[in-house]
Amino acid sequence: MSKQQRNTELFYEYYEKWIRVYKMGAIRKVTLDKYMMTLKWLKRLAPELKVCELNRIEYQEILNKYAEYHERQTTMDFHHQLKGAILDAVDDGLIERDPTRKAIIKGKTPSEKKRKYLNQFELHMLLTSLELKQEVSWEWLILLVAKTGMRFSEALGLTPKDFDFEHQMLSINKTWDYKGEGGFMPTKNKSSVRKIQIDWKTVIQFSELLKGLPENEPIFVKGNVYNSTVNSVLSRYCKKANIPEITIHGLRHTHASLLLFAGVSIASVARRLGHSSMTTTQKTYLHIIQELENKDIDIVMRSLSGLN
Predict the structure, then answer these.
(1) For residues 47 and 12, what is the distance between their CA atoms, to the nearest angstrom?
(2) Looking at residue 7, what is its pLDDT?
(3) Mean pLDDT, to the nearest integer, of 186-211?
(4) DSSP states of 196-207 as a string?
(5) Of the residues 153, 158, 170, 191, which has the maximum number of CB atoms within 10 A of its CB?
């Protein structure tokens, strides 16, 4: 590209090219879709901005406009997705100085969020309300996610072959592309390939449920699958049990929360959930970890006060 072309290239055109060169084929489709959504917003918010014109004020104005429509965390994600391309443009000499430096992240006031997880009593009420019949159903998937903490896509990717009833183990080694055209896909990351210990009651239930099913075919997938369908079933049972309504992903949070409150180490919870690092677990469940730390302080103080 000539120097003159560089001076006239629009920022959103550069970003589109950057996605094509550096991201396509290197990241999962669901992540790529987020970059493409960022591109759409960039076209809308700065349709005539040239790369060479991008400075701190111009960049902050883009963020401020985006923040008018989105909450702060979403604006932060938008910022991070743009920043990678902008830093490359700085390295390539298209922009003189980093315009993202000291960027201020704003956003709409967060709307009231649904409860993300249930306590032990509420989970017990939910599971006892499930109508578990002798054939595979969404109720069985709800039970399994609650007992294992696996992701929804991981549960959809399960086949009878993944169950090792003799050793009470469940292998997570693939997912199901329910957001796309269907079919098996790799797990979210290498750490997501794991074996999860399951309790004896779940072993007995699923060993009966899976009898005669094809070994290598997904257990829960029959045609198109939508996250909203399973969430509707779960919501109906939450209402039936008179407990807060949560999503299927909320069952994963519930599983992790109960383990942490039971005293299971962060390292073990991270491995069970398939997190790429303990940092992810700590960030996601910071509120619970802080609550547990406060309990630990009380125990320490009581112990010390008893010493003469």
Answers:
(1) 7
(2) 64
(3) 94
(4) EE--HHHHHHHH
(5) 158
Which of these, 179, 158, 159, 156, lies nearest to 226 by C-alpha position? 179
The label of the residue with tokens 């349709």 reads 47
Structure tokens at 154: 């991981």
Please calculate the CA angle 34-231-243 and round it to the nearest 5 degrees: 125
Higher pLDDT among residues 73 and 308, named by residue: 73
Query: In which element (H, E) is residue 286 found?
Result: helix 286-305
**Residues composing the chain:** 308
Residue 303: pLDDT over 70: no
Comparing C-alpha atoms, which of 140, 138, 142 is closest to residue 123?
A: 142
To the nearest 10°, report the CA torsion of 208, 194, 276, 280. 40
DSSP state at residue 164: E
The CA-atom distances, in angstroms, between 241 and each of 122, 159, 205, 231, 251 are 8, 30, 22, 15, 15
pLDDT digits (tens, 9 = 90+) for 20-40: 999 999 988 888 999 999 999
Radius of gyration, alpha carbons of the chain:
24
What residues contact residue 2 under an 8 Å CB cut-off, 6+ apart? Answer: none
Say whether pLDDT at 288 is over 80: no
Half-sphere exposure in the Cβ direction for 171 (13 Å, CA):
12
Pair 187, 193: CB distance under 8 Å: yes
Contacts of 241 (CB under 8 A, 6+ apart): 122, 125, 126, 128, 129
Report which DSSP code applies to 189: S
Domains and CATH numbers, the chain: 3-91 (1.10.150.130), 120-294 (1.10.443.10)
